[in-house]
Amino acid sequence: MAFSFSSEKSHCWSLLPLQSHPPLILHDSGQGLSHSHSVKEKYTPHLRVPLQRRHEQMKKNLEAQHKELEEKRRQLEDEKNNWEAQQRVLEQQKLDSSRYNTLLQHIHFYTTVLHVVNHEQLFNLFLWCHIILYLFSYSSPHPVPS
Question: Which parts of the sequence are annotated with region: Disordered (predicted)?
Fold first, then answer.
């Protein structure tokens, strides 16, 4: 399949302003479109340098963007790791706090009991508990036969 633009004055070319050079003639060489040899020599040398510069600049821009994205990815990874560590610390603090609160409740209960009951009452309670234990352990549940 051959693609070509001729320099003949067709309707669409007549609408364009006059140019100092004829339009490019493109040929299908079987490997895609390529410029004819004379066009290559005439137009590509002055286009090659700016295109190369543009290509290099685009390559540098892409590399810079890649570095920025990689840095942002590292920062987000660090933030994620910090957040996870903070969550673990908070969970541990919750556990420690609940254990501490439970311990405080027990201590408060026992100190309240000790303040309410004075030493004489504790001794009497202790004595009565032992008397009851003694009576239950040495009394027989059945009457002794006579």
Answer: 57-80
| First vs last C-alpha separation in the chain | 133
Which residue is it, tokens 């066009």? 39
Please report how many Cα atoms fall inside a 13 Å half-sphere around the Cα of residue 3, on the Cβ side: 11
Q: Is the pTM of this model over 0.85?
A: no
**Residue 73 falls within a domain, yes or no?**
yes
Within 8 A by CB and 6+ apart from 24, the residues are 5, 35, 39, 43
Is position 100 within any domain?
yes
In total, how many domains does the chain have?
Answer: 1
Residue 56 CA to its chain's centroid (Å):
33
pLDDT score for 1: 47
Q: Is the pLDDT of residue 85 over 80?
A: yes
Full residue range of the structural domain in which residue 63 is found: 21-104
Task: Say if residue 109's pLDDT is above 70.
Answer: no
